[in-house]
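ERR on first pass: missing label on line 2. Operator R.T. fixed the label and resubmitted. Corrected input:
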Amino acid sequence: AQSVSQHNHHVILSEAASLELGCNYSYGGTVNLFWYVQYPGQHLQLLLKYFSGDPLVKGIKGFEAEFIKSKFSFNLRKPSVQWSDTAEYFCAVNAYGQNFVFGPGTRLSVLP
Amino acid sequence: NAGVTQTPKFQVLKTGQSMTLQCAQDMNHEYMSWYRQDPGMGLRLIHYSVGAGITDQGEVPNGYNVSRSTTEDFPLRLLSAAPSQTSVYFCASNDPGQGAYNEQFFGPGTRLTVL
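pass 2 clean. output:
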């Protein structure tokens, strides 16, 4: 069965700091990878996704993620965070024909 | 195009009561899913459907029923509510037939409290 782990439960940063959120998954086959964001009181929205090709994926709001197949990782990065990035971030994995599996989430707090 | 809609947004139940959470999508997606979100546990799959008339259990199905009579609607029924079912419930839909554009779209959620 697939599983997804996220390295940090809660990350606190000051504005303009760089961000990296870790995500690892366990599945031996071909997977699709996603990062979703959930702003306070809202539903999940897609930040970015990887299916194939260039392992460095760019998403909305200046976020990017790098797929490293040998490490089963899909880490999320942003060079300079803003207060408005305060949210919970979920990594997800989906293999063809199977259900999505979500990680436990990482809460990001950005201090002004 | 409303996407995925859920009703109600908030609900308080007493232990033993039953209720139905409604979910509808207007994107003609084949797949629909119900998740519950609890602090520190991410999203856990309750039930899912791969098309009208076809449903299956997810990771945490106990205490919940679903049916899928149309492509658009996927209601979740709580048969006899328990405090352990206090959670935020999200409905999602996606169309795996689109291959590389397979992406789950989420509804706004229903916050359920069982006393």
